[in-house]
Each structure stands twice: as structure tokens, then as C-alpha cells.
Specification:
The complex is a heterodimer of chains A (about 140) and B (about 170). Helices cover about 25% and strands about 35% of the residues of chain A. Chain A is globular and about 45 Å long. Chain A has three helices and eight strands. Chain A starts with a strand and ends with a strand. Helices cover about 45% and strands about 15% of the residues of chain B. Chain B is built from five helices and four strands; from the N terminus they run E-H-H-E-E-H-E-H-H. In chain B, helix 2 packs antiparallel against helix 3 (about 105-115). In chain B, a hairpin with a 5-residue loop joins strand 2 and strand 3 (about 95-100). Chain B is globular, with a radius of gyration of 18 Å. By secondary structure, chain B is of the alpha+beta class. Chain B has helices at about 20-45, 50-60, 105-115, 125-135, 145-165; strands at about 5-15, 80-90, 95-100, 120-125. Classes of the chains: A alpha+beta (about 140), B alpha+beta (about 170). Chains A and B meet through strand 1, strand 2, strand 3, strand 4 and strand 5 of A and strand 1, helix 1, helix 2, strand 2 and strand 3 of B.
Amino acid sequence: TVGAVALDSDGHLAAATSTGGLTGKQWGRIGDSPLIGAGTYARDGDCAVSATGTGEYFIRDSAGRQVCDRVRWNHQDIEAAAHDTIMSIGSIGGDGGLIAMDANGKPAFAINDVGMYRGAVSSDSPVIRTAIYGDE
Amino acid sequence: QKHWSLAIHGGAGVIDRGDLTPAKDAAYRAGLAEALAAGQAVLDTGGTALDAVEATLKPLEDNPLFNAGKGAAIAADGNVYLDAAIMDGGTMKAGAVAALTRTKNPILAARAVMDKTHHVFLAGEGADAFAKSQGLAQVDPSYFHTPEREQMLVDWKKDHQAMINPTHMYG
């Protein structure tokens, strides 16, 4: 699964996700990626989210919407909201990760697996950064 | 210059340092960097976040290393079914597609659902037909298959054959 979140110079957020799902998935099975509020979500002023992992758990826990609600209603910063959401998913048996971005363009990466292919760039840090392993 | 920001993921899992050769490690990082550069080009010239996330995902869908578009995971029946979604935080508009089998870039189809219909989510043959009607590139389903993903399905079947064929349930 691949995904992106962005803040533009007018202060608008957006999110996108694309996937083939799981190897050996049952035909007809749909994961969280195309479900708005689960694998993909964006709301100006709060956050944008794209998730990757065992989709059924991200659907049950409304992962994308949950991150943004944690920001809006719990007043958590984006890192705490992303971390607590992925831990919540882990607590019900789900594995994976997500990327999130707050209204100021601060990115957060949260995983409960060993690694996640990821990267970031911004007007403040125009040199592209990439990472794969959990300790990077 | 006003502030902008972009972040991406290319999938998660049990990725240890010993799992990837230096060449594979470099190839994944190059793929991520190419995608980020595509989104950066949009945002750096005043483009929208919506256009940036779309531009970022297209090269990842075209890169066979990642599980989306070409190189996507293969389902139990041997076919590739592709899903994608996009959402605009400013307008709360969204578009999504599922179970595409012929549309080369699912993220473009999701964007078209958002921009060109009053729906949010189209699936299956209707979604492919809609994408085609919008002029989006269509490919033979074999385009999405790669040897690596074929092997992953073979490996998966070794572990799950008993579930597929009940006559093997007891060994």
C-alpha cells in the first residue's frame, strides 16, 4: 500500500492511498485503503492521514478519522494522535502503520510493525528524506 | 515563500535490515524519492495539496516494487484487484475506487470519481468502465503482475492450501 498526505501553501490538507491489498486475499475483499475515514482521511484544521496494514482492523477502529478526532477533540499533537491510534489498532490485533500531518504541515509516522517505507519533504526542509527501518 | 509539506508511505511490515540487499534498499529509497519529487514539484510551484498527493502516488503505482498499480499483490484467484482513495481536507470532498482490474492508475480514477460525479465510491466493473469513460489509461490485467508477486502467491498457497481445498484439511 502506498499513500501520501500534504499541506499546500494555502493551508489546505489532502490525503491519498492506493493498494493491491493482501497476497491471497479473497476475491471481493476490500480493505481500509479506499474507505474514507479508515485508510484515508483529511480535514482542514485537524489532520490528513493515510494508513497501511491489516485493513480489517483499521476499518473497525476508524483509523483515519480517529487520528483527526484525537487532534480536534482530545487536543493531542499529531505525533501523539498517530501513535495512540496505531497502538489502539494493535490492541485489537492489527498490524501496520500510518502517516499523518497536522494543520501546520508537521508529519508523523506511527508503526507497530518493524518497518515502514516512508519519506518526507517540505518547504522548510527541501532535501528529500527517506526511511525504511523502525530505528531510522 | 509560503509553507508546504509532504509525507509518504510505501507500505509497512516486518522489514529488518537483513531483509533487503543494498541494491534493493537503494531501489526502494529511489522510488520513494521519485514520488516525493513529483509531489514537491507541485507544491513548490503553488499547486494544491490535492494535486500533490495525486502526483505523488502515480509514480508509486507505476513502480513494480510497491504494492499498488503495477506490482500489486495478487488475490487468491490469481487476479489483481486495485483500490484507491483521495480526500480534499478543504472541501471534505472525496473519491474512491475498489476492485479495479484494468485501470492503469487507480488514484486517477479515485480523483475522477471525486471531481466528475456526485458519488464517493465506485467498485468493480462499473469503476473500470467509468475510468475508461474519463479517458484514463486502460491496460491488460497482466500488466499488473510481476514475478515477485507471483512467487508470493505461490508461497502463500503452500501455507493456505488446506483452507482452499477441504479434502486436504486433515493432511
